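Cross-check.
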Amino acid sequence: MKKQAGIATLVLLCGGIGAYLLSPAGREEAPAGARPQTPVNVAEPRIDRVRDRVNAVATTAARDAIDVTSEVDGRVLRLHFREGQRVEANQLLVELDDRQARADLRAAEAQLRDARAKFDRASRLPSQSISRADVEELQAAMEVAEARVLSARTVLENHTIQAPFEGALGLRHISQGAFVRAGDRITTLDSISPIEVVFSVPERYLAELEAGQRVNARSDAFPDQAFDGEVTELGTRVDPVSRTLQVKAALDNKDGRLRPGQFMSVALTFRERDALLIPEEAVLSQGSEQYVFVVVEDNEVERRNLRLGQRLVGEAEVIEGLAEGERVVITGQTRLSTGDRVTVLDDPDARVSVRASPQGNDR
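Predicted model, tokenized:
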């Protein structure tokens, strides 16, 4: 009897197991080799204003730059400037001793008066009393005297040296009382407000370049300050070796902090536009293809090939392959395949990125 009861119990147990496996609950938990759902974090693409721009290195240059020199020999009578001083156009800088120049001008003016008087007397004489050749000779002598007066007056004026344009003066190379020769350097004068930066842009951006585009520049000397400006001139020739075009931009430099010859990093903005952006960590690569996984119905994922634009700080621009509102996987996607089911986690700290609006595309 005990043996028959055991057999009956075994039959009932096997039947119960078979009934469970055939039930819906049994079919959900029992498939052989089924992969567990992968926990993932997701993010939605966002629309933001971005700037298309190119980065370059540049050198500052004065818009106008000269060596201030003397055009005549003379002794320095007075200096009217300090080193580093900002001066206006036509401001007096140096006076040279002009006593000899004034004397030469008076002598030339006296010679002119005499030549003019002789010519006037000859012109009033009857034609029988003086030949036409003599009159013409006196006229020529008067014109020579006029030229000597003009030359003497110019030499006198050159004994005062003025700033030809507004700018900043450099170091002084002479002292009061020193004797200077024509051509000796007295100081330097640079027009630095605004100051120019000169840099090169690859030729592939020629169609996008134009005067008036915005420029933002930074210097290691002033790491916490940005200098804004705009493109003023485009070169007319592409360098056949580097395949670049030289560009000039003017930067605001009212406080005079920038000086000619400084190294600068420049960002040239072509245009601003709206772009679809996704977190950079969502993007995977396989050969030349770039793709993401998108969560679709029933928490299944689908691989989506993308055409990307510019890479930003922590984000990538999507040109084709994704729409606003779709959810892209940003963690756990390396183990996924199309059709896999996932568990979407609610973790706002899953992604840490730096955002700036509007953003710039660094090329």
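The chain is about 20% helix and 40% strand. The radius of gyration is 43 Å. Passed to J.P. for a second look.
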